[in-house]
Amino acid sequence: MLQIDPISSGLFAYVVTFLAAWVFYAVTLHLAALYVVGDTPHQRAALAGVAPAVVSLSIQPFSPLAAVVLALASDAAAIYVVYKLRKRGTALLALAHYTVAIIFGVALFNIITLLSA
């Protein structure tokens, strides 16, 4: 019988984790932008979602608290550049994105925990 060995770590694991984080941040940013900005193309969220994904995955092994702070700062910077908002709009959208990401993250964690039990 053929069995596939699971990949414990390596480049493939990092790429898949990055893609999952990127999609998560892009989807939650688009939902937050729909609420704060109004109708906006999803391509902007996909472009801005790269920054917090890169920062959170690269800093998290060293300091989780620093990863949260730097991911939020990089998220605000990416929102400012991509959405071309003023500082107040950028702060509001970044806060809304952070809130939506926490809500979806906790819900997703609970679903995965429930299904794996």
Overall outline: globular
How many distinct helices?
5
How many β strands by DSSP? Answer: 0
Tell me about the largest β-sheet.
none
Cα(first) to Cα(last) distance is 27 Å
Oligomer: single chain
Helix/strand order: HHHHH
Secondary-structure content class: mainly alpha
Poorly predicted spans: none
What is the percent of helical residues? Answer: over 70%
Q: What percentage of the residues does DSSP assign to strands (E)?
A: under 5%
Transmembrane segments: 12-37, 95-115
Keywords: Membrane, Transmembrane, Transmembrane helix
InterPro entries: DUF7473
What does this structure look like?
- Pfam families: DUF7473.
- Keywords: Membrane, Transmembrane, Transmembrane helix.
- The chain crosses the membrane at residues 12-37, 95-115.
- With 117 residues, this protein is mainly α.
- It has one domain.
- It is 79% helix and 0% strand.
- It contains five helices and no strands.
- Helix 1 (11-36) crosses helix 3 (50-59), helix 1 crosses helix 5 (87-116) and helix 4 (64-83) packs across helix 5 (87-116).
- The longest helix has 30 residues, at 87-116.
